[in-house]
């Protein structure tokens, strides 16, 4: 947020990276906080927990949501081996249920259901307050978690396909830029050879043809560079969102997942559904019809009356 202070002007703020203009709410000096990125930052900066039993710090740690204690793998096996611990909820430390995501902020009751209609988790009081017709859209947390995982996987797969398409398009446009350079050079060479054989008579035509080549080259180069610039700017955005998606899926427990997954899904959808310049609007050919033009220029001189 320190990087954005002072950038607001007339209720708007432009992104210092992509220059996107964001409209601020009345009285706001900064855009609203990004809950998804905030979660990712907090997850990545959390201190590594020590085992509650042996005080060691292992690469792979677990967390007992019943005991509310972190455990290493060895202590997990030793302390929870007895039958009386069989019902304890043991998960990876990164998947532990944080209290902020377990209870309803309105009623201070634990979440028990998820509304697929409103994309929010519900406690028993929230469920009772819902309209009868809306209750049919409620699922238990485990089912909602599995369905949401599948939906995010589908969106991420579509996002990967878009990333691959953008990479292919970037290579295509780079090839086209090289192609138009080669074709332009070849065209100039042919034009120059014909010019030499008709040096004086075709001097004027040669200049006109070279101007036409330069014009076509400039036009196509500008078009391809514009599309290439747009796609090159898009790749980091795609990469960042894929990293976020992967990190989020690996670090969020089901409560956090259901709380934030649809924010991520909607964000991925908005980028996927945008029109991206994946295909060239012009060919890479440079063509001046030089033979016809040369023929027209020398036709009066070569005309043989019957």
UniProtKB/TrEMBL annotation:
GO MF term (any one): zinc ion binding
B box-type domain location: 46-93
Record keywords, A-Z: Metal-binding, Zinc, Zinc-finger
Keyword Zinc-finger belongs to the record: yes
UniProt entry tagged with the keyword Nucleotide-binding: no
CDD domains reported for this sequence: Bbox1_RNF207-like (cd19814)
One cellular component term from this protein's GO annotations in UniProt: perinuclear region of cytoplasm
Designated name of the protein: B box-type domain-containing protein
Gene designation: ORF35173
């Amino acid at each position: 947020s320190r990087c954005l202070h002072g950038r607001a002007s007339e209720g708007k703020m432009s992104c210092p990276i992509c220059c996107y203009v964001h409209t601020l709410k009345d009285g706001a000096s900064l855009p609203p906080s990004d809950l998804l990125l905030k979660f990712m930052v907090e997850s990545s900066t959390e201190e590594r927990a020590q085992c509650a039993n042996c005080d060691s710090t292992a690469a792979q740690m677990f967390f007992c949501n019943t005991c509310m204690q972190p455990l290493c793998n060895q202590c997990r096996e030793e302390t929870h081996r007895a039958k009386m611990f069989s019902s304890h909820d043991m998960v990876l430390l990164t998947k532990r249920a944080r209290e902020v995501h377990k209870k309803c902020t309105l009623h201070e009751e634990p979440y028990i259901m998820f509304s697929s209609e409103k994309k929010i988790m519900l406690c028993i009081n929230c469920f009772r307050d819902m309209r009868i017709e809306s209750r049919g859209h409620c699922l238990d947390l485990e089912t909602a978690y599995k369905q949401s995982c599948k939906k995010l996987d589908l969106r991420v797969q579509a996002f990967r396909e878009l990333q691959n398409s953008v990479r292919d398009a970037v290579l295509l446009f780079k090839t086209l830029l090289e192609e138009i350079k080669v074709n332009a050079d070849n065209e100039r060479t042919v034009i120059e050879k014909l010019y030499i054989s008709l040096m004086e008579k075709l001097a004027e035509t040669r200049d006109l043809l070279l101007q036409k080549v330069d014009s076509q080259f400039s036009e196509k180069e500008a078009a391809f560079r514009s599309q290439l610039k747009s796609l090159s700017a898009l790749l980091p955005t795609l990469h960042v969102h894929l990293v976020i998606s992967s990190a989020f899926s690996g670090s969020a427990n089901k409560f956090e997942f259901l709380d934030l997954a649809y924010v991520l899904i909607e964000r991925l959808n908005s980028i996927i559904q945008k029109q991206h310049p994946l295909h060239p609007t012009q060919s890479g050919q440079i063509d001046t019809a030089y033979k016809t033009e040369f023929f027209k220029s020398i036709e009066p001189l070569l005309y043989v009356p019957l």
